[in-house]
Amino acid sequence: MLFILSLLLNAAVLLGLSTMMSTVTIKNYTTGIIVALVIGLLNATIGFIISFPINVITFGILSFVVHLVVTALMIKLADYLLSDFKVVGFKPALIIAVVMAFVDFLLMVL
User: Fold this and answer.
1) In the predicted structure, residue 1 carries a pLDDT above the cut 90
2) Where are the transmembrane segments (predicted)?
3) Cβ of 5: how many Cβ atoms within 10 Å?
């Protein structure tokens, strides 16, 4: 249940940020759900493969920063994979990653 709620909230975050930022484009809410699911799957697979060695090297001290950067990279990868989702530049992807991490944190706390 928590996974579905997190997925729907991340889709809402993506849609909300696409209305606020001219560099982010999402076709509709269904696309937002698909994009949130793809980003989650990419983070769980490729993101883990990328972040694990970096966290081992830094002894986990920079774990949060590494997670944000890797999530931003996965957002850019989702941009390349999905035609109805567009993010122009790395900075908007990083902003999306920060807001998604904040929303996920709030979901875990509440």
Assistant:
1) no
2) 32-52, 59-78, 90-109
3) 10
What pTM was estimated for this model as a whole? 0.93
- Rounded CA separation 103/9 (Å): 8
What proportion of the chain, given as a percentage, has pLDDT over 90?
A: 86
Task: Quickly count: other Cβ atoms within 10 Å of residue 57's Cβ.
Answer: 11
Q: In the 3-class helix/strand/coil scheme, how is the chain assigned residue by residue?
A: CHHHHHHHHHHHHHHHHHHHCCCEEECCHHHHHHHHHHHHHHHHHHHHHHHHHHHHHCCCCCHHHHHHHHHHHHHHHHHHHCCCEEECCHHHHHHHHHHHHHHHHHHHHC
Query: The tokens of 63 are what?
Result: 């774990």
Cβ atoms of residues 107 and 9 within 8 Å: yes
Mean pLDDT of the chain: 93
pLDDT for 52: 93
